[in-house]
Structures are given as C-alpha cells and as structure tokens.
C-alpha cells in the first residue's frame, strides 16, 4: 500500500545534503531522482524522499507531510524554541555529520572578557531564539537582531555590535574582521520524526531503517586492528586500544613468547595510537576498515 511508504525529508542542496545522501547510501539505499526533482524514491525499502530547504524540514515533519527528516540541531532547536507547533517534531538521534557551532563573535579589536560586554548592545543573528536563550542564561540584556543571511557583515555596516553565527572553520569570521568569543550552541545533523505513533506498516519500515543507520553509525569510526605482541604485554596493549572490547589473543606458530592480538576498535585509531602500541612491543600492526557491523 502506498500510504505505508515511509517519507523522509532531506535537504535538497546545501551542507546537509551530501552527508544525508551518503548515510542513505551506506544503509544500502539508492535514491532515484531526476535533476531538480523534489521527490525521490528508494527501491530497497518502501521509502520516499522529499528534497526540501533545511528550514522547512522541522515543520514538514511536525505537520506529518513527512514522517522523518534530517536537519541541523541548530535549526531544530531554533524551531522548537520558537514554539510554533502544538506537536513539534521529536529528536531520534544525532548522526555525526555537518558538525558546526553557533558562536558569538565580536570585532577582532574588542578585548572580550565576558558576556557582560554585550549589555545594551545589538547582536545580529539568523538564530534569534537560541541567541536570546543564551543571553538570558548569561544574564545579559542585549538585543538579538534577526538577519536571514550575511550576518557577518552586520558590525561593519553598524547594524549590530556583535554577531551570533554558525562557524565551522572560522574562515568567514576571520575574513570579516571578527573573532569567535563564546560558544552558544554545538550542532550536528539530527534525525527527527513526527511525534505521533506510526502505523504498524510504517513502524516496520522505520525499525528496518533504524537498524541499518545504527549499524552504519557504529561501524563508521570502527577499525579492525591486528598486531603481534609479547605475550606479557597483552593487558597493557588492550588498555591502549580505543573503544575495544576484549581482544582475541591467538597463538603465533613457532613462537612461545609472542602472540597475535585482534580487536575491534569502536573509536578512531590515530597514528599516535600506533606509536603507543609500538612502544609497548607491538609489531606488524594492521588497521583495517569495517564495512558493516550488527550487534
Ligand atoms: O538552501 P537551504 O535553506 O536548504 O540551506 P542553507 O543555506 O540555509 O543552509 P546550509 O546548507 O548552509 O547549512 C545547512 C546546515 O548545515 C546548517 O543549518 C548547519 O546545521 C550545518 N552547517 C555546518 C553549516 C555550516 N557547517 C557552515 N559553515 N551551516 C552554515 N555554515 C555557514 C555559516 O552560516 C557561515 O556563513 O558557513 C559560514 C561559516 O563557515 P566557516 O567554515 O567559514 O566557519
Ligand atoms: Zn536554510
């Protein structure tokens, strides 16, 4: 039945799009869509994809035009604080991409020594609710001036004294003579859903998708690590393996004092980790990617 297809809203084009499509692809789902189409279809599971502007996604999900969606936590939280929906969309889980921070930024020449400096001033932002909430938490009386875009030029145009804007590398602030001075909100892509119960058919599709997404997220940074090591260094090495459960220890043919250690590391394995392992006596260290994982 067509109404049993799960509808997911993702950003049509922008900083969330690539990560959202990649996630679906990693889940084994191919979205077929024509150029510029607002609608895509998945064949592997009964899922339809709506391609929207990111700002519209929380409302579409709240209004049940879509069942689930992927949006920045910054946009989701701003909408939630604005409180325009009786039954707003609800959070399912963070997805680990499109990471950025909403930062308060001030002209470089300010010697900023705390939020008090903003007393009575104007802060330009596209996120007035998040900004006001932060100002209130800091006990500062300042005005949040709404700007839809080009927030970073506001101080130069004397529209505002400071800005509260999304920062990822900081290059935009820097190019506009601004410096980040306080973190207002930490954000990443978020999976959201309609607050009401799904029909049993939709729930089954949702559960299948969740299982795949969880599998992708847990294996994303995970690596299979193998090495040879002195038998008496196994305990010390185990402590150095990031996010590893009990490793497998195997006999090495023709060697009584050395063993092979195999482990699944659930956190990133950096070069520094390998150096540490070598110092503990490990040799022939191999780090292999893990494609899929299911508990
Ligand atoms: O057209 P549509 O409305 O769908 O897209 P949009 O232009 O409103 O949003 P888009 O695609 O720019 O961002 C979508 C989401 O990506 C945001 O809501 C954030 O959750 C997340 N994200 C991650 C970012 C950034 N990184 C980011 N760097 N959103 C915006 N920026 C902008 C920021 O506003 C500033 O202008 O990039 C500039 C700063 O970047 P740096 O690297 O110079 O610091
Ligand atoms: Zn937008």
Task: Report what the structure shows.
- By secondary structure, the protein is of the alpha+beta class.
- It has helices at 17-26, 57-62, 73-82, 128-137, 171-175, 200-220, 234-240, 271-279; strands at residues 6-11, 31-32, 39-42, 47-52, 68-72, 90-94, 100-107, 122-125, 143-146, 162-167, 178-187, 189-193, 223-230, 248-252, 255-265, 283-289.
- The protein has 3 domains: 6-97 and 189-219, 3-Layer(aba) Sandwich (D-Maltodextrin-Binding Protein, domain 2); 100-186, D-Maltodextrin-Binding Protein, domain 2, CATH 3.40.190.10; 222-289, Alpha-Beta Plaits (2-Layer Sandwich).
- The strands form 3 sheets. It has a 7-stranded mixed sheet with strand order 2-3-4-1-5-12-6. A 5-stranded mixed sheet has the order 9-8-10-7-11.
- Helix 4 links the parallel strand 8 (122-125) and strand 9 (143-146).
- The radius of gyration is 24 Å and the shape is flat.
- Bound molecules: phosphoribosyl ATP and zinc ion (ZN).
- The site of phosphoribosyl ATP has 21 residues, from helix 3, strand 10 and helix 5.
Strand content: 25-35%
User: Which segments are poorly predicted (pLDDT under 50) over 5 or more consecutive residues?
Assistant: none
Order of helices and strands: EHEEEHEHEEEHEEHEEHEHEEHE
CATH architecture classification name of the largest domain? 3-Layer(aba) Sandwich
What's the level 1 CATH class of the largest domain? Answer: Alpha Beta
Strand order of the largest sheet: 2-3-4-1-5-12-6
- Number of structural units classed as domains: 3
The helical percent reads: 25-40%
The DSSP helix count reads: 8
Query: What's the story with the biggest beta sheet?
Result: 7 strands, mixed
